[in-house]
């Protein structure tokens, strides 16, 4: 009772002092801040400027790894494309029911605004780096900070251009409200990002002592991608000669990365678990302590950093929740034969995003079956029954049993969405942290933003768009040869709808590439056609009744830009 009376007396005294101290209502409400931070006075050291960049690295890590398991980020990772869908238990999170997807969809706004947040941070770092009171250890340090900021600004515009087309180019920190932003064209957006990357390329290092920071090869990779994207759009705009010039630049920048001497495909066993007989070189790429260039992985160009010690101490987002978010739920879909949350079922999966049958089976059908990327250690298809009452206890459960365990067709379809092969990219047989109380939800390894394999596939596409199908096939075969694939493709396999390129990207980059970026930058009806063909659930084909190759500008953005009309992208309605 004494403590309660004391607290009441304290707050009564505070109210009394406030009343006595107020001379008038006007003076009480008048603000007189002793300190007001602006760009000009908020920075005093180069380390503070670098912290702005660290904030962007952190944002991109969280945007990719998705430690908070946000639904819109699963879309960014590919949900709703030809490669991924949602499980039956998550039909409400679908992103291929076009009766629900329109210009007011919050996913579009979240993605669009997130990249502008990144642009704002990059602009802040660029302005702060030029302040007269900031001293750098050398001109090289200053140039490197500016290069990283320009890289990130280009990275954001690369994503905006590929996903939304022409957007507003913002090059300075906004100090007053603005309602008159104008859209650039898609080509202009690409060109702005290219210009930033050309500037960044000159001052980024070839390599770094520790992993995670962007390097010259990352800028060159995205230059290859952006010139490819720009060339594709120029050709669509009827500017074939300009498009071909852009494709030539794409090939040139990709070649700098591929043949420049810094990077090379890993073709022999390497790293922390290379002496274990069960693995292969492709599997090695995704083991703990093997992901960074500094680990001896010569095809690693840019990575996100995960640190288990930091996770335990203070950074709860320093994890890859892939076993949980991407893992299968055998305990629901095949409960008569498989249960639990241990390594034998791929960890503690809850199936936030699932592979379509295109990813599971189609890309490895027939002559494409023999391939390290389809090997049991890489893409696990054999699961031994662990339910004692199952006739398959201790033996492999056939997939026709897993898929057709019920007499009801709807139940079987639902169960098929919950059980599927498990990639070594999302699960492991040696989970870190179990002794500390961790379950088998998270991986604590670093992860790729850019791997040389994707650079090779970009060059293959640029060659094909330049009319060199034989050269495109040769590039695809660089990856197929490394994967010990028995079938090597030829020029005749390089179809005009780019199915071969897209199939090889799915084989090589499952759970790695940003599939929406790929499909939308390719233009035409490629995205729509493939979604209709490969989506797991029938809603996509039934409701996708219009063509598009851009996402809509979020209606909120259009509505708040009241002084200038922003035109909506074709095909989208409110």
Describe, in short, the structure shown:
The protein is mostly helical and 574 residues long.
Q: Could you describe the 3D structure shown?
A:
The protein has a domain at 322-436. The protein has helices at residues 2-21, 25-29, 39-42, 46-65, 71-76, 106-129, 139-164, 186-203, 216-236, 240-259, 281-284, 308-313, 322-326, 330-333, 357-360, 399-403, 409-416, 452-465, 469-482, 499-509, 515-521, 526-534, 539-543, 555-560, and strands spanning 84-85, 300-304, 354-355, 379-380, 422-423, 447-451. The longest helix has 26 residues, at 139-164. With 574 residues, it is mostly helical. The model is unreliable at 1-30 (pLDDT under 50). It contains 24 helices and 6 strands.
User: Roughly how many Å is the radius of gyration?
Assistant: 26 Å
Terminal CA distance reads 60 Å
Helix content: 40-55%
Strand order of the largest sheet: 1-3
Unreliable segments of 5+ consecutive residues: 1-30
Question: What's the average pLDDT?
Answer: 93
User: Count the strands?
Assistant: 6
How many alpha or pi helices? 24
Shape: globular
- Please state the structural category: mainly alpha
SSE string: HHHHHEHHHHHHEHHHEHEHHEEHHHHHHH
The amount of beta strand, in percent, is under 5%
Largest sheet: 2 strands, antiparallel
Subcellular location: Cell outer membrane
Pfam families: SusD-like_3, SusD_RagB
Main location: membrane
Family: Belongs to the SusD family.
